[in-house]
Amino acid sequence: MLRQYELVERVLEYDPDADEAMLNRAYVYTVQKHGTQTRASGDPYFSHPVEVAGLMTDLKLDQETIATALLHDTVEDTLATIDDIEKNFGGEVARLVDGVTKLSKIEQMPENERAAENLRKFLLAMSEDIRVLLVKLGDRLHNMRTLNFIKKPEKRQRIARETMDIYAPLAERVGMYEYMREMQLLAFEQLEPEAYATITNRLQQIREQDGGQVDAIALDMKHALAESGLTVEVSGREKHPYSIWRKMAERHVSFEQVTDIMAFRVICDDVADCYRAMGVLHTTWQFLPGKFKDYISTPKTNGYRSLHTSLIYGKSMRVEVQIRTRDMHRTNEFGLAAHWAYKQSERPDGQVGWLRDLIEIVDASHDAEELLEHTRMAIYQDRIFAFTPKGALHQLPKGSTAVDFAFAVHTELGTQTVGAKINGRHMPLRTQLNNGDVVEILKGKNAEPQMSWLGFVITGKARAAIRRAVRLKERGEVAEIGQKLYDEIVTRVPAKIGKKALREALKRLEMEEPEDLFYAIGAAKITDRAVMEALMPGSTEGMADEDDEWLRSGKSLSIRGLTPGVGYDLAECCHPVPGDRIVGLRKQDKGVEVHAIDCHQLATGIDNDWLDLSWGKRSRGAVGRLRVTLYDRPGTLAEMAGIFAQNVVNVKSLEQTQLDHPFTTYEVDLEVQDLAHLTRILSALRASDAVAQAERA
Fold first, then answer.
1. Tens digit of pLDDT for each residue in 435-458?
2. For this structure, is 541 an active site residue?
3. Any idea where the ACT domain is (predicted)?
4. Active-site residue, from 19, 20, 43, 77
5. Closest Cα partner for 651 from 666, 626, 671?
6. Cα 60 from Cα 56, distance rounded (Å)
7. CA 400/CA 189 separation, integer angstroms
8. Helix pair angle (63-71, 91-101), 10° resolution
9. What angle in degrees, to the nearest 10, is found between the helix axes of 20-34 and 4-14?
10. Ramachandran region, residue 320 (left: φ > 0; alpha: ψ -120 to 50; beta: rest)
11. Sheet order of strands, 691-696 included
12. Where are the alpha helices (DSSP H) in 81-176?
């Protein structure tokens, strides 16, 4: 553990003007407040914040960050308060400590909700000051280094999984690769102990057998570059076990088949020398096509810059090479932390692009599961590069589609997307993008996100925005049904109801807007009797519970203009189509389910709230289901398909449900205009010699 004077001297080495008195006070304060508390290892608890502060000095961070590291656990684990911190160390340190403290676990919540709430607070605190993240990453790294002292294996596993899923990816996204690699390695040891032991043993064997091969290859590269007049530093290393294991898992290969377990780094004086060095290496050794990546001309979103290539050394050995300048190397290893060094005059404000996307995801997410899903997508996937027609570069996860690209450019563009051109050609929206694609998004003024997009988009930002838009539309359409029901309820109140009565009713029901009431009615969150009482207290006095049906006027409610699957759901059991007589079952929190009046399943909904519905004039379009029995002989299926084509109907699905020679039975879902359209198709099927029987399913 660092002693007080050692920690202060470390800071003064790179920042002679640092407030030595404040650093001393912070050190003494954390020692006093944590007192006799101990860690699982048996060490004094204050050794942890002191070591985290030491990690921050390695990054040459400013004095406020060092003080925050020393104090980061005092509010959570001692009697100290944020006011105490502000009084003793100033407002900036208090704000940073408060940001880190907000990330503490919420023990009363279920596991996923607790993780989600931590992540939500984490992201919001990061958005205000990125130093909160830097301290938290140092805190997590030191905790991982001492994880083996925790006795409960399930707790070690939970902390390791959280580190692998959230903290290591976040370290990567801010460019702190040293932290990322160590976190991954320590978490891997806990999560996959057998794999970890196997790979580390194999690497040890290679180390003992190669006779200094890594150093020999590095020396060869340095000589080749020196002969071309380049003065460089070359170092080699084996990839760490987690990187090798992930490659084995992704490629489904054994350890022996992973050929590129050695990586070399070439450090040059300037950018021009980087490209010259790459040319020398490519002409000296054979390079692997498709493995070259230029992150100098197109840096990663976290600021990472380097040239990557793969070479064939000797007859068959494949090695990776990274080429960069010294400044790039500093930034690449410590990312945003490098910009927060005490001497930097232009510091990032923390609101980098990907962080803004994460904050947008926080706002759009509906629940804990969604938040975790979306943020993990946003921070933990390999990237590709795609361009707008004007040349603006956007980085996206591998597997992203044109819709993902649209939302990456701007949320509003994503919501208005109707089509896409990829490299000048019209392509389906679900088309996956490749590196270097030029994507032009076509938009429409009245367009809106489709629920079906969730089947192929992969970015957290797109999924969160689509779900939010669909939820808003669903709320609006359920409220529209609720308003129609409200208008009907009002006719049964024994007095004329005006705007004043509605305002008073909202106050009694503790609602803010009329739409809140309409939505509650449509979603069956409130009874008609309760609405009447809110509008006019005493209006239902003397009514028995079974008299609720008296509230119904007998007039059917039109569902015209509402969207199936949003404002209401068409029942799967009877597949009603326009023209069928329909009723609705109003289920709490599930909206209205529409059934044909003769549906056999209606008996199961006897306790639900029934609505008399109508399709409304000129309603068109629904999916009807038929059960068709064909003679089991060649050509009958083609004849049935021909009948569908002649009647201009689209087949949504076709499933063989029974084979009973000489008959085969199919269930067919068809997109039809209305009942008359479906009836014509049934008549044509029954008239065919290929069809033994046809009926609605």
1. 778 899 998 888 888 888 988 998
2. no
3. 625-697
4. 77
5. 671
6. 6
7. 31
8. 50
9. 150
10. beta
11. 650-660, 663-672, 622-631, 691-696
12. 82-89, 91-101, 111-128, 131-145, 153-162, 168-173
R_g of the chain computed on alpha carbons: 33
> Which tokens in the block code for residue 607?
């306790």
Q: Which residues contact 112 (CB under 8 A, 6 or more apart)?
A: 368, 369, 372
> Nearest Cα to 341, choosing from 613, 49, 13, 603?
13
d(CA 532, CA 524): 14
Query: Tokens standing for 604?
Result: 């199961």
Query: Which DSSP string do the residues of 234-276 spell out, in sequence order?
Result: EEEEEPPHHHHHHHHHHHT--GGG----EEEEEEESSHHHHHH
Rounded to the nearest 5 percent, the helix, strand and coil shares of the chain are: 50, 20, 30
Strand order across the beta sheet in which 591-596 lies:
557-558, 609-614, 582-587, 591-596, 568-570
- CA-CA distance, 225 to 119, in Å (whole number)? 47
Q: Say which residues have a Cβ less than 8 Å from residue 102's Cβ, sequence separation at least 6.
A: 121, 122, 124, 125
Question: φ, ψ for residue 318 (rounded to 5)?
Answer: -100, 130
pLDDT digits (tens, 9 = 90+) for 270-282: 999 999 999 999 9
Question: Are 678 and 672 in contact, with CB atoms under 8 Å apart?
Answer: yes
Q: d(Cα 90, Cα 509) in Å, to the nearest integer?
A: 46
Residue 55, pLDDT score: 93
For 495-538, the pLDDT digits (tens) are: 788 888 888 888 888 898 988 888 888 877 888 888 888 888 87
pLDDT digits (tens, 9 = 90+) for 99-129: 887 654 433 344 555 555 556 565 666 666 7
Helix and strand totals (H; E) in the chain? 28, 20
CB count within 10 Å of CB 123 equals: 21
Residue 496, Cβ density class (10 Å: 0-12 exposed, 13-18 middle, ≥19 buried): exposed
Catalytic residue from among 19, 20, 43, 76? 76
N residues, the chain: 697
CB-based contact 75:98 (threshold 8 Å) = yes
The residue among 242, 274, 263, 255 whose CA lies nearest residue 318 is: 263
Query: Are 86 and 80 contacting, i.e. CB atoms less than 8 angstroms apart?
Result: no
Mean pLDDT calculated for residue range 606-611: 64
Q: What is the pLDDT of residues 616-633, one digit of tens each?
A: 765 667 889 999 999 988
The pair of structure tokens assigned to 252 is 């489904």
Q: Does the pLDDT value for residue 337 go beyond 60?
A: no
| Whole-number Å distance between alpha carbons of 663 and 633 | 9
